[in-house]
Write a structure and sequence with these properties.
Blueprint (H helix, E strand, L loop, with lengths): L6 E5 L4 H12 L3 E6 L5 E2 L5 E4 L8 H8 L3 E4 L6 H6 L1 H26 L4 E7 L22 H20 L2 E7 L2 E2 L8 H13 L6 E3 L5 E2 L2 E2 H12 L7 E3 L5 E2 H11 L8 E3 L17 H7 L7 H19 L1
Parallel strand pairs: 1-2, 1-5, 2-4, 5-6, 6-7, 7-12, 8-11, 9-14
Antiparallel strand pairs: 3-4, 10-13
Helix pairs in contact: 1-7, 2-4, 4-5, 6-8, 6-10, 8-10
């Protein structure tokens, strides 16, 4: 009997979004394949099949596509830290920007060999809006990138559109606003805060150093956002979508929620480090996800306060193990 399982290939599968997406797809009886760049290939912890590749090279992407034989490809791989992109602009442009072109072209060639259509999801970013020209930002808002990371994402966005229009590929962009979770990397401000809250509460750390705490963002839960990614690829026609909560909070608000959850006042526990400021700041990002709500039936479920408490509780458990 022929295998009727749908197959998905996820780049950046070891990251936050890859973690949640893998489990989401496995629950829907997908066969999940993933690309990793920092560990050996084999079988992942959830049973996914892993291959080694680097989007800065891309020479074996065609071989991986042949092995995985995917129906859907989710491109989540990137150098995704905005502040770091100022220190590593060329690497960021190569992986986050040109890496997407390498993947798109590998899929185009694979489709010709395999005689099948692959549905491609590109993880675009709200950072592309940068110095915003309107608030909230929707699919029609012009881009104004303010970092090497954001510039690379804009390049990747337009290459995805270009391949869709030039080669009739099923390729689309999910313009996701900030989405966090206990799986968020520790270099990102929300996880940096939640980890520090836990360690300060348990006496393992004295202070927390941060950059611009007045920056305002539209923060949601990664577990909610990956559902929107999947829903996009289930539509008959490929279109680009903004995914966001539509609510804005500052870093200061996250400090209030996270430290308040454990009964601490952050005022004397947080220090400003000017070295953590970006050369070009993005003051506010707020998404209008009306299209995703109406066409995909998608809604965020986890609130800002619930998200902060979830992350702190997770890091409290890790800190207790540490202590």
């Amino acid at each position: 009997m022929a295998d009727t399982k749908r197959r998905a290939l996820i780049t950046g599968i070891s990251g936050q979004d890859g973690h949640y997406l893998t489990r989401f797809l496995l629950k829907r009886d997908y066969e999940v394949h993933g690309i990793v760049s920092c560990r050996a290939p084999g079988i992942g912890e959830a049973g996914e099949r892993l291959y080694y590749a680097d989007l800065a090279d891309g020479s074996n992407l065609g071989q991986i596509l042949d092995k995985a034989n995917p129906d859907e490809v989710y491109n989540l791989a990137a150098q995704s830290h905005v502040r770091l992109s100022f220190d590593l602009p060329q690497y960021t442009a190569d992986v986050t920007g040109v890496g997407v072109l390498r993947m798109l072209d590998a899929i185009r060639e694979y489709q010709q060999r395999a005689g099948k259509q692959v549905r491609f999801y590109q993880a675009s970013s709200s950072e592309m809006f940068g110095k915003v020209v309107e608030t909230p930002q929707s699919e029609s808002t012009p881009f104004y990138p303010r970092s090497p990371y954001a510039c690379a994402k804009v390049y990747a966005y337009w290459q995805t559109v270009n391949y869709r229009e030039s080669y009739d590929m099923y390729a689309l962009n999910g313009i996701l606003f900030n989405h966090e979770s206990p799986r968020r990397g520790e270099a990102f401000v929300t996880r940096k805060i939640s980890k520090a809250v836990a360690r300060i509460k348990l006496g393992l750390q004295d202070k927390l150093s941060l950059g611009n705490i007045e920056a305002q963002r539209d923060w949601g839960f990664a577990g909610d956002f990956i559902e929107a990614m999947w829903l996009m690829l289930q539509q008959d026609v490929p279109e680009d979508y903004v995914v966001a909560t539509g609510q804005v909070h500052s870093v200061r608000d996250f400090l209030d929620a996270a430290f308040g959850h454990v009964g601490l006042d952050w005022a004397n526990l947080v220090e400003t480090d000017v070295n953590m400021f970006r050369p070009a700041e993005v003051d506010i990002l707020c998404g209008d996800a009306t299209k995703a709500q109406e066409k995909l039936g998608w809604q965020p479920k986890v609130s800002f306060g619930e998200l902060a408490r979830m992350m702190v509780d997770h890091d409290l458990e890790l800190a207790r193990q540490e202590s």
